[in-house]
Design a protein that fits this description.
Structural class: alpha+beta
Radius of gyration: 25 Å
Largest sheet: 7 strands, mixed
Strand content: 15-25%
Shape: globular
Strand order of the largest sheet: 1-2-3-21-18-14-15
Number of strands: 22
Distance between the termini: 21 Å
Helix content: 25-40%
Number of helices: 18
Length: 609
């Protein structure tokens, strides 16, 4: 029988009978029955979930065929290439994992499967390493992680909603294996020097020669009166010129740290130690290099393991390095393309596994050190972004702040908050911006509307579209939902993991996301507490929702306190608990928690207990 306990206004259900849905068998189930008239934000969240889902269907029907192939001209290249095909569905996994329609998951999986076949069949004529297929073993043959990560964002987040899919699990292990040297044809990693041996790497291993403009730009293509190139070039000759100086790719670069997300997925499947061990080994090696380089991450590590070893000894050398500034061919202007900040996602992955502040500290010091190089220019204090033979350059009136927001998100320390300027979401969480939820939801709704209008008005045909043309019309607009519902960092196209404070699961429908009609607003977050209001906007049906501590169960709930009950608390001592919301019911709760105390997992809560 059920054991009912009333405490501090709670109806708590313990020891639920086995005859009830086993997915409801959390250690504790909280019954919420008091009516709460749906706030505006709650109704807007439901509207945005529905609008996003419908807009994605319209987009998919327009730009993908029945095989899941993107309707475009297939090419290899850094301007447009295989990575852009799945990037057309950027943020769709987040949409489904929050509670979007079930067909969102179906569509992005179909698009992923289709693009794998499409770009395995697609071959280059002139680019040497893709002549037998742009993909090999369902993975890019070799390219840089600025682009590899863009193409893998959809796949790598499939585990949020579909962690038991057999194809997904096989691919997770295969992809990670390319970097653990488990595939003899892909010796990307040097375990002696703890480096990935080239900026170009993948299923056919590393490219160990200087890259050419052809390697980056792809085979010759007709441009005039056919394609509107997204990077502004007006001819194929300009495409080659765009990449003319992208030569020094041999050796390791910080962007390769994004590859640790593949091993992280591998670890979160079944907690096989080899994946965690490799992540920490590789990230620790980079951490030591940062410290040895005065807390500035070097942009080239030579094949011999030395800083700048394949860039004439310059720690700032190499493609996408601190000193990488190139001429824009169509304008003659200078473009500064330093992507060393992309190394931080690897450190975020190590922090997720350990909760160890030493993975944040070198990046704090890097920010402070760079800003200490400020100088007065015409009466304005200016801060650098690049470093070359001439020293620090490319000064801006804004302080250097790459990854400052993420550092604070993990640490939740005041000293890190001070590096961040004005931010609408943080201001709301700090109690100073009460209109932010509805404003941000309305902005995302307007973005969905305008994107669908763009899709319907797009005059292009499949033979005049490249892979990145339709991408700009992707309607998925989920930033406000990720912030409000789960207290999360919206993963950009180069970050392959969802970092968030809470996640939700629908036990009745055995899926990720909030049940239909349920909205959630996190309005307060500190290092050990989060306050959330759950509302069942459905006036007819009871809904059950499993609340999980962290995106992957990495946190732990200590207790829960009802809004207005300052003295009485309910002990939880669990990674998750269930809330049953009566029709039209809702409540604000403050959850006390310990962060980063469990190893992250992909399994749904009821499969992990």
């Amino acid at each position: 029988m059920r054991c009912l306990i009333c405490k501090a206004g709670w109806m708590v259900v313990l020891g639920i009978m086995l005859s009830i849905n086993p997915r409801l068998q959390a250690e504790q189930t909280i019954e919420i029955s008091e009516p709460l008239s749906p706030p505006g934000w709650a109704l807007l969240q439901q509207q945005l979930l529905h609008a996003n889902s419908e807009a994605c269907r319209i987009f998919f029907d327009r730009y993908f065929d029945e095989r899941g192939y993107l309707l475009c001209v297939e090419r290899w290249g850094g301007d447009d290439g295989p990575d852009d095909a799945p990037e057309n569905m950027l943020h769709w996994p987040f949409l489904h994992a929050l509670g979007g329609a079930e067909n969102v998951l179906t569509m992005y999986k179909h698009g992923w499967e289709g693009h794998l076949r499409q770009f395995t069949e697609a071959k280059t004529v002139d680019v040497p390493f893709a002549r037998d297929g742009m993909y090999y073993k369902e993975f890019p043959v070799m390219f840089d992680w600025l682009h590899n990560s863009e193409g893998l964002t959809v796949f790598n987040n499939q585990g949020l909603s579909d962690p038991d899919n057999l194809k997904f699990r096989h691919r997770v292990r295969r992809y990670a294996g390319f970097y653990l040297n488990e595939d003899p044809g892909a010796p990307n990693y040097d375990p002696e020097h703890k480096i990935i041996r080239s900026m170009f790497n993948g299923s056919r291993g590393p490219l160990l020669r200087k890259a050419t403009g052809l390697d980056w730009a792809g085979d010759p293509i007709e441009v005039g009166n056919r394609f509107g190139l997204r990077h502004g070039e007006e001819s194929y000759e300009q495409m080659i010129a765009h990449f003319r100086d992208y030569n020094d790719i041999v050796g390791d670069h910080p962007s390769n740290l994004v590859s640790t997300s593949l091993a992280l997925n591998g670890y979160m499947l079944d907690h096989e130690a080899k994946y965690k061990d490799w992540i920490l080994e590789y990230v620790n090696a980079w951490r030591e290099r940062m410290i040895a380089n005065g807390n500035i991450i070097p942009s080239n590590i030579g094949l011999d393991g030395t800083i700048g070893g394949n860039a004439d000894g310059k720690w700032y050398g190499g493609v996408y390095g601190w000193g990488f500034s190139v001429v824009i061919p169509q304008t003659g202007g200078l473009a500064h393309r330093n992507t060393t900040h992309l190394g931080f996602p690897g450190f975020m992955n190590a922090y997720l596994l350990t909760g160890d502040d030493r993975y944040l500290d070198p990046w704090r010091k890097q920010i402070d050190l760079i800003n200490a190089q400020a100088k007065q220019v015409n009466g304005t204090l200016m801060y650098p972004r690049n470093y070359g033979d001439q020293g620090w350059y490319n000064f801006s009136p804004q302080k250097y702040s790459s990854n400052a927001f993420e550092i604070y998100y993990f640490s939740m320390q005041d000293r890190d908050r001070k590096r961040i300027g004005s931010n609408g979401w943080l201001s709301f969480l700090e109690g100073n911006n009460p209109d932010y939820p509805e404003q941000s939801l309305r902005q995302d709704l307007e973005h969905v509307r305008s994107q669908v209008e763009n899709v319907r008005n797009d005059p292009t045909t499949p033979d005049t579209r490249l892979t990145d043309d339709s991408m700009r019309f992707n309607p998925a607009s989920v930033r406000s939902l990720v912030e409000q519902m789960v207290g999360g960092l919206i993963g950009g196209k180069n970050r392959l993991v969802l970092h968030c404070r809470l996640r939700y699961f629908d036990p009745e429908n055995n899926r990720a996301g909030l049940p239909q009609g349920v909205s959630a607003l996190i309005d307060r977050m500190t290092g050990d507490r989060v306050s959330v209001t759950l509302v069942n906007t459905d006036p007819i049906n009871t809904r059950s929702v499993v609340v999980q501590a962290g995106g992957y169960g990495e946190h732990h709930f200590v207790s829960v306190q009802s809004d207005g009950q300052s003295e009485e608390t309910l002990s939880l001592n669990a990674q998750d608990f269930t809330v049953r919301l009566a029709p039209g019911a809702g409540r604000r709760m403050t959850l006390k928690m310990k962060r980063f105390v469990h190893q992250p997992r992909l399994a749904f809560p009821w499969n992990a207990r």
